[in-house]
Amino acid sequence: MYSLPWRGNPHIDTYNGVAKVTTYRLNLLLAGDDDTEMVWWNIHDRQNDPRLHIVKFPRPDDQTKFSVRCQVKGDTTEARWETAGAPDWSAKNLTKYNTYASFVRTDHLHALNWSGKNPRVILSLRFSEPWDINVEVLRGQSQELFPRLLSLTDQSS
Q1: 153: buried, middle or exposed (CB in 10 Å: 19+, 13-18, 0-12)?
Q2: What are the sequence ranges of the domains in the chain?
Q3: What are the tens digits of pLDDT across the range 10-43?
Q4: How far is it, in rounded angstroms, from Cα 149 to Cα 142?
Q5: Residue 103: how many other CB atoms lie within 10 Å
Q6: Has residue 133 got a pLDDT over 60?
Q7: Closest C-alpha among 118, 99, 103, 104 to residue 29
Q8: Residue 130 contacts by C-beta under 8 Å, 6 or more apart in sequence?
């Protein structure tokens, strides 16, 4: 199921180097395959989990400048997957080209397993608020934003 070479690099999204965590993203697929698998592990303590470390790597736009990333320890993708173990969750239906976007959690260890068919171009908005708070905000506003839909799906009345 997770065969090389297309398994993604297990990592946690951060910004300002690794000072802050990107809790989740809203992704909109602009081009490419819409069946790319995303997987997550229940690994999120980037400060204390011994499987994680901070990696320094050259930036693609300027090899003399460096960025840092929080990822699983290992010299190869295969070694990192072995260290992380089997993913706890997976999804293949997150974004559909010209149809819908998706909120994806990025404060837990995750990876994209690209099929190798077509490169993906994603417009991605980064959020740093806690995941649970935003879920509650969306649920609280759903009646206001989608009253007709909720009235059709409400079975309590």
Answers
A1: exposed
A2: 11-130
A3: 999 999 889 999 998 988 888 888 888 899 999 9
A4: 9
A5: 16
A6: yes
A7: 99
A8: 23
- pTM, rounded to two decimals: 0.79
Residue partners of 26: CB distance under 8 A and separation at least 6? 101, 102, 103, 124, 125, 127
Cβ–Cβ < 8 Å for 108, 43: yes
Two structure tokens written together for 70: 């929080």
SS (H, E, C) 79-120: HHHHHHCCCCEEECCCCECCCECEEEECCCCEEEECCCCCCC
The number of helix segments (H) and strand segments (E) in the chain equals: 3, 11
The contacts of residue 124 (CB under 8 Å, 6+ apart) are 25, 26, 27, 28
Share of the chain above pLDDT 90, in %: 42
Residue at token pair 């180097």? 17
The owner of tokens 């079975």 is 155
